[in-house]
Design brief:
Bound molecules: zinc ion
Strand content: 25-35%
Distance between the termini: 32 Å
Helix content: 10-25%
Radius of gyration: 16 Å
Order of helices and strands: HHEEEEEEEEEHE
Number of helices: 3
Strand order of the largest sheet: 1-2-3-8-9
Number of strands: 10
Length: 180
């Protein structure tokens, strides 16, 4: 089980590393690590469990945040009609919109506690990756398009695997970007 104490905090050097590709086929060990990461996000969004284990709510986690500098990440947003849930390995960005957006409340990060700030993100982003199929428990190559809030969460985590933190990008020059 991953707890807050397992999440490395800025300025830990691993947060600044460019993560390396995950070896394919994905090993069982890597798969179970990804499942632990997803479990963390799910528990963190369950009020009772979050309180019980005193874990901080999060909607995304990149593996270098638990000190494993590999190109893999999990996304989970419960507060939707159908939960937004992705376990992603070796993502490659295929295309991104010129239109930009930002989170009106500002972004935060489990690895940078007590900081928030507005960051410009692409409104839409198209990605190719190995994605875990929950039904078969196998990874499949997929092309995914994320929009709006989902796109913001993905870009935040994708930055992590390239050693970039949201605090590097905080800006007040939001231009005509869409507030989300
Ligand atoms: Zn983060």
């Amino acid at each position: 089980m991953i707890l807050d104490k397992d999440i490395i905090k800025n300025p830990h050097p691993t947060l600044r590393m460019v993560s390396s590709d995950v070896e394919v086929p994905v090993s069982d060990e890597t798969k179970s690590k990804l499942k632990e990461m997803m479990e963390y996000l799910k528990m963190s969004q369950d009020e009772e469990l979050a309180k019980k284990y005193s874990i901080t709510p999060g909607v995304g986690l990149a593996s270098n945040q638990i000190n494993i500098p590999k190109r893999m990440l999990v996304l989970y947003i419960k507060d939707e009609e159908k939960p937004f849930e992705y376990t992603i390995v070796n993502p490659v960005v295929l295309a991104k919109s010129t239109g930009m957006c930002y989170l009106g409340n500002g972004e935060g990060c489990l690895s940078v506690p007590d900081k928030q700030g507005r960051v410009l993100r692409h409104k839409r982003i198209k990605v190719k990756a190995l994605v875990l199929n929950k039904e078969t428990d196998e990874f499949e190559e997929k092309v995914l398009t994320f929009q709006g809030y989902h796109a913001i969460v993905f870009q935040h985590e994708f930055d992590h695997i390239n050693g970039t933190l949201f605090i590097d990008k905080i800006t007040n020059n939001l231009g005509d970007a869409l507030e989300i």
